[in-house]
Design goal:
The chain is α/β, with parallel strands linked by helices. The protein is built from 26 helices and 12 strands. The longest helix has 20 residues. 36% of the residues are buried.
Length: 585
């Protein structure tokens, strides 16, 4: 990895301007905020090292495998948050592997602008994203700055800069003006800003000019190997201290280069945005969606290796992308119908087999509400929810599990979701959905707010229509079990501690529709039920939710909790203690 001669910020930004220094598609997009840009310029002015940079000399035969992007110059969070793709002829290029955020910050500060949303302002409204530029206060340095800065760099709108410069200790100079001039013109710049006779201000501006134009502060190590796996490994290692990266982020660049009629990066990012906005919102990530694409396209080996992203596989993925996207969207709709969201879905990988089933059967939107498919939906929902509450299903050995699930779905002869064959294969992989006593204890210990709690309640109480918004509700309201109330009721310290431990546990939880839960408020359960249902319907509700005699006084809560724990334990054994519809061997 040859060491390159150190160079100046000015020269590097000129290379960026001439498109001689570019970004490979493996790079994530610009994520720094204004304060980080200000801090970087303070470091430069103080002579602090700003880190080394890593580049890759890409030869023509390798460059055709990739697409390249320009550095961000005028960042706008709403209108232009993405890097522009470059139309470069097949040639040798120098691509930045490490240092994109710092170089982009320099490019924005010295040549461009920055526009992010003002906190509290509306998303998507132009006035919420004021365009700002970087200024240096030449008149004064910072005193006791909480971030440890010395030089007063500010990212401001023109209007803000004019207003700030009206004060006696502030004269703001656009940093871009320092970038655009030679050393001999600095004094003229100072005169134009009324600072020609201010020696201290002059020193600051000259120092900024020197740091940008003269100081050899940029050092590149340049990788010249054309072995893609080696380059990807280097990229992951040098970026491991920053945002979490996976090989999917890197291999996406190869997919982007291989697709002929679409931009894979745009298509996949747009699909992720679309899926994550369904229902109450999900948090699917690029690695999951990219792997799902490989699985649904029928590619035999869908592990994240360069050889699996060859032209043949990528051609197939591109050709089938519309159908794959539709299947993933319908699968996400189904997860939403099952009551799941980013808050209640512990293992997002379940999306892949659901989408593969949708894709294989060529299901349409009508499947979600069809009476003919009601039984099949019920089996699918049950399997999905049970897989979410059992530990260790979606962790280690994911690719092997997905391969088994795909094979089981391919081999299904009845046309429905092959839950029996799937569970048999899962059990053979030590991923059984049957719960033993230890796992039942673990389930009963689930607490309010835990991701698995909603799925546990939904599978235990299938009468709940999860297509309606449901809340996890405390049977006996938390407000009535607050420590001061318990103290006032005369309970002992031991009894109070026990109640505090049990308040948020599964045996004091149920699922109620949103409006119903809001209406329940902080009324004790016995009183609430009598006010809402007739006497015969009170009994029906209690049976459906496995509720024992309801306490009307906090002193009865511990007895209630122990009785419902027993009811739930027996119910869990009935529901989760055996396979569903498994044929005898």
């Amino acid at each position: 990895m040859p060491f390159q001669p150190s160079t100046t910020i000015k020269r590097v930004l000129n290379d960026i301007q001439k498109k001689e220094l570019v970004l490979p598609a493996i790079q994530r997009e610009f994520v720094w905020d204004a304060s980080q840009i200000e801090m970087l310029f303070d470091s430069i002015m103080r002579g602090y090292p700003i880190g080394q940079f890593l580049s890759w000399k890409v030869k023509p035969d390798t460059s055709r495998l990739f697409k390249f992007y320009d550095f961000m110059r005028n960042f706008h969070e709403w209108d232009s948050p993405h890097n522009e793709q470059l139309d470069l002829p097949t040639q040798s290029v120098v691509a930045v592997l490490d240092g994109q955020q710092r170089l982009t910050a320099l490019n924005i500060g010295l040549r461009g602008s920055f526009a992010d949303r003002t906190p509290g302002k509306w998303v998507g409204k132009s006035s919420s994203y004021p365009v700002r530029r970087l200024f240096l206060n030449a008149l004064a340095e910072l005193q006791q700055d909480e971030r440890g800065r010395e030089f007063d760099f500010r990212m401001l709108t023109e209007k803000q800069a004019v207003a700030a410069s009206r004060t006696s200790d502030c004269q703001l100079i656009p940093v871009s003006e320092v970038f655009d001039i030679e050393m001999m013109k600095v004094h003229e710049l100072l005169i134009n800003h009324g600072l020609g006779n201010d020696a201290a201000a002059g020193r600051r501006v000259y120092e900024l000019h020197r740091a940008v134009h003269t100081e050899q502060s940029i050092t590149f190590y340049q990788e010249e190997s054309q072995e893609i796996e080696r380059v990807l490994d280097i990229f992951v290692r040098v970026n491991s201290q920053g945002a979490v990266l996976s090989h999917s982020d890197l291999l996406l660049s190869i997919a982007t280069a291989q697709w002929e009629t679409r931009d894979a990066r745009k298509e996949i990012n747009a699909l992720i945005d679309r899926l994550n906005r369904i229902g109450a919102g999900f948090n699917f990530r690029r690695d999951l969606i990219l792997k799902a694409g490989l699985v649904l396209a029928g590619i035999t080996d869908f592990s994240f290796k360069v050889q699996n992203f060859n032209a043949e596989n990528m051609d197939r993925l591109e050709a089938e992308w519309d159908g794959i996207s539709a299947s993933l969207a319908l699968a996400t709709d189904l997860l939403y119908d099952f009551g799941l969201s980013s808050q209640t879905l512990p293992a997002a990988s379940v999306l892949i087999p659901v989408a593969y089933y949708v894709h294989t059967r060529q299901l349409s939107e009508s499947y979600r509400a069809s009476n003919v498919d009601r039984g099949d939906r019920s089996l699918l929902k049950s399997w999905v929810l049970r897989s979410q509450i059992s530990g260790g299903i979606w962790g280690a050995g994911l690719d092997t599990l997905l391969r088994d699930l795909r094979s089981a779905i391919d081999g299904a002869s009845g046309g429905g979701y092959p839950v029996a064959e799937i569970e048999k294969r899962m059990a053979a992989r030590n991923k059984s959905l049957i719960m033993n006593d230890e796992e039942i204890d673990d389930l009963l210990s689930l607490a309010y707010g835990h991701q698995r709690t909603f799925a546990a309640l939904a599978i235990l109480f299938p009468h709940v229509n999860t297509r309606n918004v449901h809340h996890v509700d405390h049977v006996y309201p938390r407000a009535l079990l607050a420590r001061p109330r318990l103290k006032k009721a005369g309970l002992t310290d031991h009894e109070i501690e026990l109640i505090q431990q049990r308040t948020n546990m599964l045996a004091n939880l149920e699922l109620l529709e949103g409006p119903e839960n809001i209406g329940k408020s902080d009324v004790d359960p016995a009183t609430w039920l009598r006010s809402r249902y007739s006497p015969e319907h009170v009994g029906t509700h209690m049976e459906l939710h496995k509720l024992p005699t309801l306490p009307v006084d906090v002193r009865d809560f511990n007895d209630f909790f122990e009785q419902r724990s027993k009811l739930l334990r027996d119910h869990i054994k009935d529901v989760l203690g055996s396979h569903i519809n498994l044929p005898a061997n």
